[in-house]
Write a structure and sequence with these properties.
This protein has 249 residues and is α+β, with helices and mostly antiparallel strands. The chain is built from three helices and 15 strands. The chain has helices at 4-12, 20-59, 235-243, and strands spanning 64-65, 68-69, 110-112, 122-124, 126-128, 132-136, 139-143, 159-166, 168-169, 174-175, 189-191, 194-198, 210-214, 220-226, 245-247. The chain crosses the membrane at residues 39-60.
């Protein structure tokens, strides 16, 4: 009976011949594998050591100095943005889009005023011809009573207002409320016997301006504000009218 070993050898065939170069290559591969295992072992040990050290630091108090724990840092809270709210009853002021009256081709002439203004401390000796007088508190308003449907026009574009006010002295001299400089430093013109400060330039065709008339050397002013487009006045006419206004004696 054929031996089992012989049968296996016949099935596998003869063993290949092994040369010296094959042995050298195998020896080199073996050395490389051994070197890789050693390096892997060192790296694994280092990682394990780092993990142990990290765990150790994690259980120590936060922030130590010379072994003494410092107070734990407080978490910074981000403030929540505060939303700006608008009051429920807030209503924006609508823009007045109405137009002013039409400027007439000829200016309204001046006429003598024989009736002093009632209820106020001043009056004017001239008045726009045909215009009416109305008093609001301590202010006189002149207007054209024949102006049709004045509500169709932008507010105050068809009136001329006059009132009295006092200058104040805060250590720099008597100063009108409208200005930051004292009266003595403001550019002035003379209308009749009165000193006048005006927002317009004498001789200008644009007479819708404001005029301040000082009453002698006192602190009292008579202020004239012309916003009436339908007067069609230039500055010279406005100054002439303003010069007729004065405190009552």
């Amino acid at each position: 009976m054929t031996d089992l070993k012989d049968l296996l050898e016949e099935a596998a065939g003869p063993e290949p011949a092994v040369t010296d170069s094959d042995l050298s290559a195998a020896l080199t591969r073996g050395r490389r594998a051994l070197r890789r295992r050693r390096l892997t072992g060192i790296a694994t040990g280092a990682v394990a050591t780092a993990l142990v050290i990290g765990v150790g630091w994690s259980v120590l108090p936060t922030g130590t100095t010379n072994g003494a724990p410092e107070p734990a840092a407080q978490a910074t809270k981000t403030p929540k943005p505060v939303a700006k709210t608008t009051p429920k009853d807030y209503r924006p002021v609508p823009q007045d889009t109405r137009k002013p009256p039409v400027i007439p081709a000829d200016p309204v002439p001046l006429a003598a005023n024989s009736t002093p203004f009632a209820g106020v401390a001043f009056t004017c000796d001239l008045i726009p011809q045909g215009w009416a007088v109305r008093r609001f508190d301590q202010q006189i308003v002149l207007y054209d009573p024949k102006l049709a449907n004045p509500s169709q026009y932008r507010l105050a574009t068809y009136t001329l207002a006059i009132w009295s006010e006092d200058m104040v002295d805060e250590g720099h001299g008597l100063t009108p409320a409208k200005y930051g400089d004292p009266w003595s430093k403001l550019p002035k013109v003379r209308v009749g016997k009165q000193q006048v400060v005006t927002t317009g330039v004498p001789g200008s065709p644009y007479g819708r301006q404001q005029v301040f008339l000082r009453q002698g050397n006192t602190k009292h002013l008579v202020t004239v504000t012309n916003q009436a487009w339908n007067l069609a006045w230039d500055m010279n006419t406005l100054l002439k009218f303003a010069g007729s206004c004065h405190s009552k004696k």
